[in-house]
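Cross-posted from the bioinformatics board.
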Amino acid sequence: MSSSPLAALTAAGFRRGELLALAIGPGGELGLAWTSGSWAGELDPAALAAVEAELRPRWTCWSVDPLRELVRRDLRVATCWELAAVHRLLFGGWRADPALSWAALHDLPASGLPESGQLDLLGPAGDEGVDPEQPVRPDGYLRPEWTAGGWAANPDRLTRWAALALAGAELQQQRLATLKVLGNAPATARSESTAELLGAELGEDGLPVNLATAEQLIGSIIGPRPATAAEAAAQRERRDREVLSLVSGDYDLRSPGSVKALLARIGIEVPDTRSWRLEAFREVHPAVAALLAWRKAERIATTYGYDWLDRHVGPDGRLRGQWTGSDGAAGRMTASAGLHNLPAELRPAVAADPGWVLVRADLGQIEPRVLAAVSRDRELARASADADLYAPVAERLGVPRPTAKVAVLAAMYGGTSGNAAAALQGLDAAYPVAMRYLRQAYDAGRAGRSVRTYGGRLVRMWATPDGLSFEEERANSAARGRFARNAVIQGAAAELFKVWAVTIRARATALDARVVLCLHDEVLVHAPEPVAAEAQRLVADCLIEAVRRWAPDDAVHFVADLSVVKRWSEAK
DNA sequence: TCGGTCACGTA
DNA sequence: CGTACGTGACCGAG
């Protein structure tokens, strides 16, 4: 194996765009496998860059780990096939390791999965006298010794492990091809895979943050950075006193029980002490307003304070977290390090580098538009032609716009707010196709049946727990119904969003721009200032391209709000 | 030390 | 009887 990967692939007749599986060992050893060959050797980024440039393969792997290794070595590949992401799409749930994924693709029950520790003690389950270099046991499950890390033991195993990923990917493709959903499941598998790759890049690149601004913002809320633990304690005590000085008695503001006692002392009886509930008592006693202000500051101090800054923002001014391409429920992207719940007050600190800009874009009213698309409701699709979808809906229903909006949201999420009942009936009459779609998801969930999103993601329902009262059982079913109804909308929206995001990722490289944040329906792109206008146009064009690839037809109109800014907070 | 609960930020 | 996520503090059980 002295030749380069590119030479080996070319000699074997590898065609552009084919699946090329890779496995990377802990020491940077590389195994490659494709339909007509394999290769093992040291991971040389330049050699793989040559493969990418020449053959643009679909890099195929069991998990996002090898992709992350490539990203770490500054190798940005165009496309991939990530088996874990596709497993979650096909089979639902969160767990998606090779052992489970392989078993599922062979219709073997998860309950029969061999465990690594017990195997030798209990004796082999059809494993005796069989070649240990063979990763698949006679009973069809993967050998635990391999899945526990043994796959990286030597070059031969590395290529076999890659070949197994290749075989798994092909089985996944067969399943996707026969999946009965309205959307394009194979295409969803590709965009979901690439979203994992995007997540790896987001984790490596980070979100540009102006450290001085961040320090200043935090300082204005909780005071200057304490030099010692004693100073920090003093600051904390000073914050507490702002509230406690307004009441008599000693209370622990961090303990809900104690806060409840404090409130009782000033004549306020509440079932819990959540801010929205206390909001109503703001005028009753000055301590309430002080407590609400304390809560805000405490949130910054504990979750988004100097500690957070030190832990998650590097000296290069990049906020880095761990990204996943899809959560366990409907398939949204998730991020740690506060990237998805950064308080609005801190957003001025998210700023482009000097000479750069942020292109910010968010999808407008994505959920009702997605509902129109996935349910194929022609009438609701007609409403999507309006930049404000709720306006034609309101007109059709003969109600004020706010009522129409509440009714649509209530239909999708089961909202309770006031008297949406009449408007809901109007929706049933005006948009029966969309409403039937929602009802079917709700009924499936209530009955405990799993649902699939438009793009094919299986959303599993949980079983009713034992020993519930009649009332609890009903509440459980209703919760499942709401969950399912929400999942088919939120999940489909997440699928469209990811198509958009990975399209931007692919196109933006031409401008030297990069996606730096994905936030469910919003995307931030860091772009060189001279190409700001082009980058903005690119993001808009990518939405058109994404919708064309994702939607069943062109009946539904999607809109994005776009702006070029220096700071995230400047937008909108 | 751990899981459950409360609370709260984002979409 | 909106849903989803990540985070951090407290609290009671072990």
